[in-house]
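Newbie here. two chains, one complex. Structure please?
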Amino acid sequence: MVGITANPGSGNSKAPQPSSLVGVMGSIGLSGKVNGMVYTAFSDTLAQQVAEKILGGSASVQDVSDVVAELTNMITGNLKSQLCDMGFNCSLSIPSVVRGDDIQVSAKTASISVKNEYTLEGCPDTLVVQVFAALEH
Amino acid sequence: MVGITANPGSGNSKAPQPSSLVGVMGSIGLSGKVNGMVYTAFSDTLAQQVAEKILGGSASVQDVSDVVAELTNMITGNLKSQLCDMGFNCSLSIPSVVRGDDIQVSAKTASISVKNEYTLEGCPDTLVVQVFAALEH
């Protein structure tokens, strides 16, 4: 991922709802043979570190939001590609960025709720990815 | 809307980003000839009032989230229908619900940022709807 190695955790394929997330969150909707919503959550420190690493210098609040949006787009694009290979074609909405403390996200109509944490090289905080999805019948 | 009259405000067709929202927020992605993200924001009081009105009695935290998700689905479905009539066919992701204090949402790739407030009959707080969108070229 943009020159940063991300190591996945063991994941939780039955992540409880609502899911608690903190910091700078990216979100993108999926629609098609799979409908869903992907949330990525970077702690403020992690978002700042990653943005500075990518931009090669200081990063403003806007820069950090842009980097989080772009990384969320890349992560969800990768997921879309894998879903497509499995026969679940879908298209993506635009990425939006949500900032706040102690954010709770849920999606009751999602039969699938998967959460995983990724450790990024050289960063102490983890990146959390929460996917809510429902397969088309 | 489910027996509750909603009166729109004058709206802001160039709503600044990031947009500040509070309380219980619904969100849904749009993808197709228009790509975007719709956020609805109910204050805690408004969400509770509307849920109790719809359910005809007391409403738990989960009930309130369900009602906000369903209303967001209805509002976005209505928008989708209008966009479709204008030639911008699109499909919707599933609704998700975000709770938190002082939430900031933004979508840099959205050339369209529209915000409006709706007054619901018998409720002092307003419902805020923020739409981020980009038209397909």
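Moderator note: The longest strand of chain A covers residues 19-32. The domain at 6-135 of chain A is CATH 3.40.1550.10 (Chemotaxis protein chec). Thread marked as resolved.
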